[in-house]
User: Fold these one by one.
Assistant:
Number 1:
Amino acid sequence: MSQLLYVQDLTVSAEDKELLHGITLSVGEGETHVLMGQNGAGKSTLGCTIMGSPEYAVTGGKIFFGGEDITELSADKRAKLGLFLSFQNPVEIPGITLSEFLRGALEQVSGKRMKLWDFKKKLKAAMQVLDMDESYADRDLNVGFSGGEKKKAEILQLLILQPKLAILDETDSGLDVDAVKVVSKGIEEYRRSVGGSLIIITHNDKILSSLSVDKTHILADGRVAREGDGQLAFDVLQNGFEKYISEGK
Ligand code: ADP
Ligand code: MG
C-alpha cells in the first residue's frame, strides 16, 4: 500500500518549548490509524502540526503528503491537497448558516463553486446518512447546537469535503451515545464513499469497536512510545497506558 502521509523525525515547539521530540509515523492510502496517549502526550499538537496550524513551529524533520514535502505549506494549501482536521471545540458563527459554511468550505478546498442545486442534493444525501433534520442546513453554524449536533455538523463537513486524510481529534469531547453513533456512521460512510485515510484520536471503546483499525500509535511525552496493530488499542483500554509505554522504552 502506498504511503499517503509520512511524518519524518518531527520536532515541534510552541512558545519556545519543545513539545514533540522526533516523531516518525506513516499512514497508507485507505488505512485507519488510532492515536492514543495520556493527557498532554502531544496528540492534538501532532494533529495541528500536520494540518499546518501556525501555533506550532516545526524545528526539525519533515512532513510529506502524497509524496510532496508540505512542511512549509500553509493550512489552507494543505486543505486543498486533501487534509482535514476536525476541531475538538467547533466554533459558533452567527450569521452564517451551516449550508453556506459548507458550500464555502467546499469552494475553498476544490477551487470551484458548485451549482446551488447540485450542492443542495449532495448536502441532503449526506444529512440523510447522519439522520440529520434538513432544517439544520439553514440554521446558523453551531449556534445553540447541542454537543451531538455539533458533532454531526463536523462529520457532515467530512462527508462534504471528502478529504484524502481526515484527522479526527475526539479526545476530550466527552462524546454522548448519540455522538458516538454519528461518528461511527459518518466514518463508515466516509470509508465507503471516499475510501480516504483516517487518524483518529480517541479512547472511546465504542468508536474503536466500530472501526477496522490498521495501526495504533501511542504517544508519551511527545514521542512515539509504542506502535502496534488494531488490537493494541483495545489492550491499552483494558490494561492502561503504563505497561505499554514502559515496555516501549
Ligand atoms: P494531548 O492532545 O495529547 O492531550 P497536547 O498536544 O494538547 O496533548 O499537549 C501536549 C503538551 O503541549 C502539553 O503539555 C500542553 O500543555 C503543551 N502545549 C500544547 N499546545 C501548546 C501551546 N500552544 N503552547 C504551549 N504549550 C502547548
Ligand atoms: Mg488533545
Note: The chain has a mean pLDDT of 90.
Number 2:
Amino acid sequence: MSESRHTKVLIIGSGPAGYTAGVYASRAMLSPILVQGIEPGGQLTTTTEVENWPGDTEVQGPELMVRMEAHAKAMGCEVIMDIITDLDISRRPFTARGDSGTTYTADAVILATGARAKWLGLPSEEKFMGFGVSACATCDGFFYRGQEIVVVGGGNTAVEEALFLTNFASKVTLVHRRDELRAEMILQERLRNHPKIETLWFHEVEEVVGTEAPLGVEGVRVRHVKTGEVTTIPAKGLFVAIGHAPASELVRDSLELHHGGYVKVQPGSTATSVPGVFAAGDLTDHIYRQAVTSAGMGCMAALDAERWLAAQD
Ligand code: FAD
Ligand code: NAP
C-alpha cells in the first residue's frame, strides 16, 4: 500500500554527508527523514582501511559507516531503506517518490547522493561485468585467489585496489594511461615497493577477452598510447578504478549543474539554485571528494536548512 510521509527535512543519501546532515538536523529538532538509497553507507562501504578519518588512525570503511548510521539514529534521525526515483522541486512542499511506493513531502531537501563508479564504456567490459569485470575490490577480490588481475586507473582508488588485491592475487598489473599517478605519495610508495605489483605506463585498455561458455575473463588487451603497440595481459579479472561521476540524475533538469554534472552550490554554502534545496558531499565536489569534506558539507547543509526554514517561519 502506498504511504505518504511529511518531514521538515528530507535527506537523500546515506554516505558521510547524509549521516552528518542527519546528526545536525536531528539536534536542531527538525526530525529529519533520511533515505538510504541503493548503497546504504555510501562509497566507504566498498573499501577496507580508512586511514585519514580524524580520530581513527585506522578504521574499516563499512564499520565507520555503521557507526555513522547509529550516531544519526541515536540523535533522532529516522533512517529509511528506500530509493528516491523521482524528485519534484518545482513547488513547495517538495515531493520525492520512493521505489517502495512511499511519497515523501518535505519543507527542505538535503541532497547527498554522492558519486558512482565510472566505466570504460567498452562492449566487452559490459559483457563480462560480474563475470571477471568489477569496480569493487573489497566486494569481489576474494574470488581471485591465486589468479592474475589487472587494475586500470591512476588515482587513489586504483592504487588502493591494486594493493588490496595482492591479498588474493598471484600478480596484479596496474594499467595507467600516463606515467604519473594522481594517488597520494604514501600510496604510490607502497605500490612501488610491492613485489606482486607491476605498473604498465602509457597503456589503455582496448578490450577484455575471455571465454563464452562458461563466461569468463582470460586476458586484457591493452594498447600503448604512443606507439600503438597492442599486447594481451593474461588475467582472470579486470578491476576498473577510473574515478567516479556525481549521482545527480534526480535533479539533472531542475538544478543548476557544472563541471560535468556536479550540483552547483553557492560559494561557502550548500544552497543550490532552488531555495530550500541544499546539496552536500561528492555530489557537489569535483575537487576534494573525501569522507571528511563530505561530512563537513553535510553539517553545513543541515545548518543552512535550519536557518532557511527559520527564515520561512
Ligand atoms: P557517498 O558516499 O557516495 O554516498 C552516496 C549515498 O547516496 C549512498 O548512500 C547512496 O545509496 C545514496 N543515493 C544515491 N542515489 C540515491 C537515490 N536516488 N535515493 C536515495 N539515496 C541515494 N575518502 C576518504 O576520505 N578516505 C578514504 O580512505 C577513502 N577511500 C575510498 C575508497 C574507495 C574505493 C572509494 C570509491 C572512495 C573512497 N573515498 C575515501 C572517498 C569517499 O568515500 C567519498 O568522498 C565519500 O563517501 C562521499 O560521501 P557522500 O556522502 O558525498 O556520498
Ligand atoms: P580520480 O582521482 O578521479 O582518478 C581517476 C584515474 O582514472 C585517473 O588516474 C585517470 O587518469 C584515470 N582515468 C579516468 N578515465 C579513464 C579512462 N577512460 N581510461 C583510463 N583511465 C582513466 O578517481 P579515484 O581514484 O576514484 O578517486 C576519487 C576521489 O576519491 C579522489 O578525490 C580521491 O582522493 C578520493 N579517494 C581517496 C582515498 C584516500 O584518501 N585514501 C581513496 C580512494 C579515493 P588521468 O590521471 O590520466 O586523468
Note: The longest strand covers residues 4-12.
